[in-house]
Design goal:
Layout lengths: L3 H14 L4 H7 L24 H11 L3 H6 L16 E7 H4 L17 E5 L7 E4 L14 E5 L9 E6 L4 E9 L3 E5 L8 E4 L3 E11 L1
Length: 214
C-alpha cells in the first residue's frame, strides 16, 4: 500500500539515484524547482500533500527510469544515503562509416548483428547504443570523435539533439527543429553548414541523443 511517506521517499531515492537533489530532479523534468521541496509535502494546517501523477510521469521520462524501478523504492527501506549504485550497462559502439551502410540497423533504428565494440555507460539500462561522431556540422557542440548515446525508443520532441537516417543511407547528428506529418526540419549548430529539410517519407528513423562523452 502506498503511503504519503513512502511516495516522497521514493522521489528522494530517484533523485539520489540520478545524483540530483529533489529540486535538481524537478528542474530536469521541466517542473518548478520547488515542486519536491520538503516544505511542499505538507499544507500549512499539517495535512499531507501528495505529488501529482503528472509530475511523477515527467521525472520518470526525464531520467529514463522505468516505473518498475521507481515502484521498487516504495517500502524498500532504503534512504538516499544507503542507496546502492545502479549497475553499468555495456552498449554497442558504431562508427558513422558503418552507420550509413545498409543492414546495420533494423527499421526502428536499433543496431543489428554481432561483434560491435562496446563502451560502459553507468546507471543506464534499456535499448541504447553509442555512435561515434564524424564531420563538423555540430561543432562546437559535438566534435569529430565524440561519442553520443542514442535511444531509438525514447520520445523525440522539438529542440532535442537527434541522430537521423535517411532512406538513402545518410546518417547525421542534428537538432530537431520541426516535425510534421509531411516534413522534418533538422538544424545544424555550426553556421558553416545549412539546416536540412526533408519530406517525412525520406526519413527512415530519428533517435534521441541521451548523453555524450566530451
Amino acid at each position: 500500500m502506498f503511503s504519503h511517506e513512502r511516495i516522497w521517499t521514493a522521489i528522494d531515492l530517484l533523485a539520489a539515484r540520478c545524483k540530483l537533489s529533489p529540486s535538481g530532479l524537478a528542474r530536469k523534468a521541466g517542473l518548478d524547482p520547488t515542486t519536491f521541496n520538503r516544505s511542499k509535502r505538507f499544507a500549512v494546517d499539517g495535512r499531507p500533500r501528495w505529488p501529482s501523477t503528472e509530475s511523477i510521469a515527467k521525472i520518470l521520462e526525464a531520467t529514463g527510469v522505468a516505473f518498475s524501478e521507481f515502484s521498487s523504492f516504495l517500502g524498500s527501506g532504503l534512504s538516499p544515503a544507503n542507496l546502492p549504485a545502479r549497475p553499468s550497462a555495456a552498449v554497442p559502439l558504431i562508427g558513422f562509416a558503418q552507420a550509413g551502410v545498409g543492414g546495420f540497423f533494423d527499421d526502428a533504428g536499433f543496431p543489428v548483428g554481432q561483434g560491435w565494440d562496446e563502451i560502459e555507460l553507468p546507471g543506464q539500462d534499456g535499448m541504447l547504443y553509442a555512435l561515434e561522431v564524424s564531420g563538423q556540422s555540430m561543432m562546437p557542440l559535438y566534435r569529430e570523435g565524440d561519442v553520443v548515446i542514442v535511444s531509438p525508443g525514447a520520445s523525440v520532441r522539438r529542440g532535442d539533439r537527434v541522430v537521423a537516417k535517411t532512406r538513402d543511407g545518410e546518417v547525421m547528428v542534428k537538432i530537431l527543429q520541426r516535425q510534421t506529418a509531411k516534413t522534418v526540419e533538422l538544424a545544424s549548430v555550426n553556421p558553416d553548414f545549412p539546416d536540412r529539410q526533408f519530406a517525412a517519407s525520406e526519413i527512415e528513423w530519428i533517435a534521441r541523443i541521451l548523453w555524450a562523452s566530451q
